[in-house]
Amino acid sequence: MSIKQIFLAAVLTTGFTASVHAADAVHHFDFKSAVDRAVADGTLDGSVKFYLKGNKSGGRVLEKEIVTNQKTNGFGKSAEKACDWVLRSALIQLDKAAKARGANAVTNIVSYYKKNENQSSTTYECHKGMAVAGVALKGDIVKF
């Protein structure tokens, strides 16, 4: 490879990498609607309830601050579709963790992307780039 070819490859790679990172965006979508859709289509069986921080509390906390960090292929998908899909993955992980501990709820859920806590009583946070979408959640495993 000539120096000219190496330089051209470096420039093209740098430009592509910059454009991929520049496409990253933060989105906030309605949490309850997404959970309701996942239960309605059978992704979740509904036996474990999910509550964002600032909503229902109480019960006996069996484990505090369980974290799930999920990613999915977001290429060619709208932010809403990719984020809904990756949220389902996160909810499935929390659902399994709750059931494994004999619990029936996950409460005090906050978005926890890159360990940055973002609290909302109505929405979850999703990060979507050109190729990847990610959702991270942190919550308490509870038995009501």
Average pLDDT for all residues: 88
CATH topology title: Translation Initiation Factor IF3
Give the helices and strands as they follow along the chain: HEHEEHEEE
Helix-and-strand structural type:
alpha+beta
Query: How would you sum up the global shape?
Result: globular
Q: Report the oligomer.
A: single chain
Total helices: the number is: 3
CATH class: Alpha Beta
When the domains are counted, the total is 1
What gyration radius follows from the Cα positions, in whole Å? Answer: 19 Å
SS strand fraction:
25-35%
CATH architecture, by name, is: 2-Layer Sandwich
CATH homologous superfamily annotation? Hypothetical protein apc22750. Chain B
Tell me the helix content.
25-40%
Number of strands: 6
Termini separation comes to: 66 Å
3D architecture notes:
With 144 residues, the chain is an alpha+beta fold. It has a single domain (24-143), classed as Hypothetical protein apc22750. Chain B (Translation Initiation Factor IF3, 2-Layer Sandwich), CATH 3.30.110.70. The chain is 36% helix and 34% strand. The protein has helices at 3-22, 31-40, 79-100, and strands at residues 25-30, 49-52, 60-73, 105-111, 123-128, 132-143. Strands 1, 2, 3, 4, 5 and 6 form a six-stranded mixed beta sheet that branches. The termini are far apart. Keywords: Signal. It comes from Acinetobacter venetianus (strain ATCC 31012 / DSM 23050 / BCRC 14357 / CCUG 45561 / CIP 110063 / KCTC 2702 / LMG 19082 / RAG-1). This is Excinuclease. Residues 1-22 form the signal peptide.
